[in-house]
Design goal:
about 210 residues; alpha+beta; Nucleotide Exchange Factor Grpe, Chain A, domain 2; three-stranded antiparallel beta sheet; 5 helices; about 15% strand
Length: about 210
């Protein structure tokens, strides 16, 4: 009897060799399953991470806006302080100098009329010199923001004037400045010294 060939023996033995483990029968499916499991965890964590990043971004944006607002407020405050320093830095000095203007005006107001009309060249020159000095002094004050108030005939303003007395006068509306005792001055938008005045009463009210 002829002995079976080697190929026939291998074919006959093949059905008896069953795979030891079912998982290795389909390697591609196993890898696909592992990939599915591997991708499920990041997809679940992604929403939480995105929400955290979004919140951090919002916080940083809020802090940036606050910082910019604070810087803008600081810039405006600094500009205002610098402007005030320029405008009102000489207030104390200017207030002291008002006494000089007062004395020049008093010298002219108390000058006898006879002295003006005497025709004396020396006296005339002296008077003109005092008047020029007063005008020049007031002009220099004006260049530094100091202005003289002219309240005569104006309605009394407690923000600018200080009433010392009332004058019965029915020819003008009540509350009109009819006499200036001491000149007032402003510097910028502020009162450097209020004008001391006499105010009318008895006239029609405005």
């Amino acid at each position: 009897m002829q002995e079976p060939s080697r190929k026939q023996r291998d074919t006959a033995e093949a059905p008896d060799q069953a795979p030891a483990n079912d998982e290795v029968t389909n390697p591609a499916a196993a890898l696909a399953a592992e990939g599915t499991v591997a991708h499920q965890a990041p997809s679940e964590a992604a929403p939480n991470e995105a929400e955290t990043l979004s919140q951090e971004n919002a916080d940083l944006k809020d802090r940036l806006l606050r910082a910019l607002a604070e810087m803008e407020n600081l810039r405006r405050r600094t500009e205002r302080e610098v402007a005030d320093a320029k405008a009102y830095g000489v207030s104390s000095f200017a207030r002291d100098m008002l006494g000089v203007a007062d004395n020049l005006r008093r010298a002219l107001d108390h000058l006898p009329a006879e002295a003006r009309e005497s025709g004396d060249a020396a006296m005339t020159s002296l008077i003109e010199g005092v008047e020029v000095t007063e005008r020049d002094f007031l002009s220099r004050l004006t260049r530094h923001g100091v202005k003289k108030l002219e309240p005569q005939g104006q309605r009394f303003d407690p923000n600018l004037h200080e009433a010392l007395f009332e004058v019965p006068d029915e020819s003008v509306p009540a509350g009109t400045v009819v006499q200036v005792i001491e000149s007032g001055y402003t510097i910028g938008d502020r009162v450097l010294r209020p004008a001391k005045v006499g105010v009318s009463k008895g006239g029609p009210k405005v």
